[in-house]
Design brief:
Elements: H1 3-8, H2 15-36, H3 38-42, H4 46-64, H5 70-93, H6 95-98, E1 103-107, E2 110-111, H7 113-118, H8 123-132, E3 141-146, E4 152-156, E5 179-183, E6 186-187, H9 189-194, H10 199-208, E7 219-222, E8 228-231
Antiparallel strand pairs: 1-2, 1-3, 3-4, 5-6, 5-7, 7-8
Helix pairs in contact: 2-4, 2-5, 4-5
Membrane topology: Multi-pass membrane protein
Keywords: Cell membrane, Membrane, Transmembrane, Transmembrane helix
InterPro entries: DUF421, UPF0702_alpha/beta_dom_sf
Length: about 230
């Protein structure tokens, strides 16, 4: 195989060469995504979205077109990534100058029509997003905020909020992150010890669930309320 044609593209590239080019580009995408950090994956601002769309489009073109240069594709992918990191840095320093800011769509139970027009949000868009948040009645809502990354946050009126344990004068309930204790028949020793538990306690809980053979347990997890979940 001609390596110059492999990197710069050719009509006569064999199938295995196209497969290798696709793998290289995919690895480059993974590395670029790691460089851009969690923000790129979890919080998409305007420039984050443009970079993500541009990189994916570029990689797809290079993967499908055997005549395209994979070298230039990799260079552009990393240039996009570093530009995105730089803009994210500027966004932290001067958020109002680089990215959008949060916009109030409803305040005091009143829909702010001008803000909705500025954000190009229709009443159907708003109602659909509110339903996804479990807010079906506008009369129960005090404030609606459109966040810079496109998500809607809802603040209900005090009388529409559910009762809390504090309001009911109930004792404080300790909550914790659900933790895996057994996976595929093997005890997660680190997790077990971090909770201050031992093998005797674990086996007692498993016996309460009707199991005495650890090898048959696919998943055992300590849930936030102290319950042990087990699946065979």
């Amino acid at each position: 195989m001609d390596w110059n044609s492999f990197w710069e593209g050719s009509k006569t590239l064999p199938t295995y060469a196209l497969m290798i080019r696709a793998v290289i580009l995919y690895i480059a995408l993974i590395i670029a995504t790691r460089l851009m950090g969690h923000r790129q994956v979890g919080i998409l601002s305007g420039h984050n979205y443009l970079v993500a769309a541009g990189i994916v489009s570029l990689a797809a073109t290079r993967m499908l077109n055997s005549e395209s240069s994979i070298t230039s594709g990799i260079v552009i992918i990393f240039v996009y990534a570093f530009v995105n990191v730089f803009l994210s840095y500027l966004d932290i320093k001067w958020p109002r100058a680089i990215d959008r800011h949060a916009t109030i769509l409803m305040k005091g139970g009143i829909i702010l029509r001008e803000n909705m027009l500025d954000c190009h949000i229709t009443i159907d868009n708003l109602l659909g997003q509110l339903r996804l948040k479990g807010a079906h009645n506008l009369s129960e809502i005090d404030t609606v905020i459109l966040e810079p990354y496109g998500k809607i946050n809802v603040i209900k009126k005090p009388e529409a909020l559910p009762l809390t344990r504090k309001q009911m004068n109930l004792p404080h309930k300790i909550s914790a992150i659900p933790t895996i204790l057994v996976y595929d028949g093997k005890i997660e020793e680190k997790n077990l010890h971090s909770l201050g538990l031992d093998h005797d306690w674990l086996m007692t809980k498993l016996r309460e669930k009707g199991n005495i053979n650890l090898k048959h347990v696919f998943l055992a997890m300590l849930e936030s309320d102290g319950t042990v979940y087990m699946s065979m």
